[in-house]
Design brief:
Radius of gyration: 23 Å
Largest sheet: 6 strands, mixed
CATH topology of the largest domain: Rossmann fold
Strand content: 25-35%
Distance between the termini: 28 Å
Amino acid sequence: MIEVQEISKSFDSGEVLHQISFSVPKSRVLGVVGPVGSGKSTLLRILSGIHQPDAGLVLVDELPPKKRYVINRKLFFVSDEVVFEAGATLLQLRKFYKVFYSTFNDGIYHKLTAQFSLPEKAKLTSFSKGQRRLAALVLGLAIKPSILLLDEAFDGIDAALRHKLKAIITQQIDEEEMTVILSSHNLREMEDICDMICLLKDGSISLFGDIDEIKAGFVRIQLAFDKPVDLDSFDKYKPLSLTQTGKLLTLIIQGEAEPVLLDLQKRKPIFIQEVPLTLEEIFILKAEANHETVD
């Protein structure tokens, strides 16, 4: 369990995070998204222990920061900028990690290096950006951490390898009760692997919760009539969006769908259906409503 209690953080440029609070249970995957400069990377660096908050507290399995040494043995962080020591190879890092992490699993290490075709004896500085990120993830997964933190987790990795990597991470979550917190600019990728989401805006949480519950709070209704209709008459439903293409109307609302559907049925449409929204569509709608951009 990760508990974040009213953490704030400022740099010379100003406050980056303001009184952030949330909790993530074991075996869950939390995705952190938000506009550029919203504090995503700073939040992950605080969770990893690289930065200390100016105020507030982070508890990992109820352990406070003074137990950081114990916490770090359970935690692995892959930064958005993966940097290795000059001349280092995967083989050398494997030996180092086996000393530092008693949980390091050679079976997982060898399986993943083979799956991703990563040469053990080649200098990591010769790897591409995607290969360096894969190398860091292989080492991280091999130590079997309780908590895996990934900043821009899949950046530079091609689609086929991303799909394989997500499956491996999901399997380890199930087998090891691993908790994952990741940031990404790609909302579709978040929806594929995450079951919780945190939307940051101006250093504060704009939206937090289970993805299924968030998606259930928005609905797209498509309907058609055999004669012209007054679009203003749909204002009563307070639509986030209302568009018309020929006879087809598309209405997007926030809230319970059933009362609206029942009321729309009274208008005797020749066609009506409810269509789920993607997480990306929901975030775009919220951003447009607030004149924002989502990274």
